Each structure stands twice: as structure tokens, then as C-alpha cells.
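In this supplementary section we document a worked example of the pipeline. Step one takes a protein sequence of length 215 as its only input; no multiple sequence alignment statistics are reported here. Step two produces a three-dimensional model, which step three serialises into C-alpha cells for compact storage. The input and output of this example are shown verbatim.
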Amino acid sequence: MQKEDPQEAADEVMRLVKNKLSRYYQTPPSQIQVLTPMQKGIVGAANLNTILQETLNPQGEGLRRGGFVFRVNDKVMQIRNNYDKEVFNGDIGMIDVVDVAARNLKVNFDGRIVEYDVTELDELTLAYATTIHKAQGSEYPIVVMPVLMNHFVMLQRNLIYTGITRAKKNPRTGRNTQGTFLCRAECDGDKTKYSFKRKVTGKVLIAGREIKNIV
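The serialised model returned by step three reads:
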């Protein structure tokens, strides 16, 4: 899917998460993870989080902290280890309760409820989108990854590979029945074109360079 304009790519990511992929795979948007090489920019994690929250969860009271508003049903990530709460950097959960009067909220981390006072919310960030670096070691049912040339400085083969392989593997066959991706990126500073084409186990979409047979 060719989307070289950053705003067009961001809009397409929104449509993919909200409508196209969730319908095609009969998967709720909360199970679709957007990964991006960088934090800043139109297709950076910060802006994509804002767009996706406005699209998927725009209503309701919330608590504000660090430029974010946290609402019930928001997808959030713990961004530093908290041994007292037993939550760790990279853990993703959903906000179950927001108590504006008491100035606290509760996050469901895979069935485990963790409470945060408003003063502790700098430990959380919205997680509709996150950087590939933050996603290392994690797996997701479906991954959407915009890769544009304004990410040029970050477009190294191993980074793209890391992002793509965050999609969950089929534990029985190790094979992908959903399609084949083709990604080409100019990277490593010398503008060498790396082409790598392989079967990917899971469901992966790259909105940005080139893609085949995913949706």
C-alpha cells in the first residue's frame, strides 16, 4: 500500500485499525498494535496515539497528565518498572475505571487490576501506537507499521524486521496463511536498497512502502 505523504499514511493507519483490519480479521481494534520507527512526526507514535484515541475512544471523562487524557477503555503502556505495583516497562493494559473525583484510575493488565493515583500517571502513556524499540520482546495479534522515507534515519533492516516479527506466530505450524509482505527501504546511510521478502506468521500490514496480499 503506497502512502508516501505522512498525513495520508496517518489517515490510512486510522482507517485500517478502526475499520478495515478489524472487519477483515474479525478482531477488535484493541488487538491491533500500531508500531512506528519514531516517536515524533505525523506518523510518529505520539501523533498516532492522539489520532487513534480521537477515533476509537473520543468520549468520556478522563484524567489529564503529561499532555495526555486517560479515559475508560484507553489502551495504555507502563513505561518504567514499578516493583511495588509489579508492573514493568512495556506492559500493556486497558483502563477499566477512571474516578475523576478521587483522581485515580485502574488499569487491567491481563486480568490483574492496578490502581494509579493521578500523580503516578507519568508512568503510563497511550499505547494505541508505540515505537518499535518499545515493542521489542512483545507480541501482538496484528501489527500495523507505517514506514515512510521521513523515517529515513531509522530505516535499518534489523529495525524493520523487529517490527514485522512482533506479529504473533502460529504455534502449531509456524506458517502464515494471511499473506506475504514485501518491504523495500533505503537505509544504513548509504541508500543501499534492502529488499526482503518472506512469509510472516501472524497478520502484518506495512502502510508506507510496499505491501502485497495482506488485506
